[in-house]
């Protein structure tokens, strides 16, 4: 197992919580009347609930920038940097960022805000709900080096949501060549959409093929399945379950965070 995970997180099999930012300036759903102050205030409130609930890390993303772009406009990362700047004094745990769906912008934001990791679709070509989706990991990796982001860890989502890999390849071979040729720091395995269950067999396939690269379950983790998922995966990234009633659009509810993290701690004690 890669030793970087233990150097960032003080526990085995860490649970990283998504901190979903409300729609931002430039997004169709941005509340121009409330302004960016309302986005900051909600983020501060949800950050407090996630940390008090005991999560091991957070991932700050523009989850409500729907519909997503594969090359974001500058205003998105600029707005996120401003918001994260206001959150930094409150963050007590490891944190990462994700500018959906733009790997280069995610790295820029991480370097600018001191984030330790990013998650994105860095490899592959897909037919997606937002058009033909191509990537260029060689260019992104070189960009990371140029901007001084060599220490920023890259989480590769190799089963992207709302998209289908165009090449006729199985998940095992995709994992093996991703590890060999593109040098991920971690691999994420997802369901069809945010909050959708991740197939346990798919997770096991990726884990067996990933060698020493950590594998994270990326969607659909709940209090009643976190033990089974962490029995296979090296960590989990969780967003929807922490929301009121487990609904994607709702705010984080601290009681649900406590519930899941209690189940995760019980599971980790047996590993």
Automatic annotation (TrEMBL):
Q: Which InterPro entries match?
A: BtpA, RibuloseP-bd_barrel
Q: Which residues form a coiled coil?
A: none
Q: Which SUPFAM superfamilies match?
A: Ribulose-phoshate binding barrel
The record's listing under Pfam families reads:
BtpA
* Lineage: superkingdom: Bacteria
Q: Which family does it belong to?
A: Belongs to the BtpA family.
Q: What is this protein's name?
A: SgcQ protein
Q: Please name the source species.
A: Amnibacterium flavum
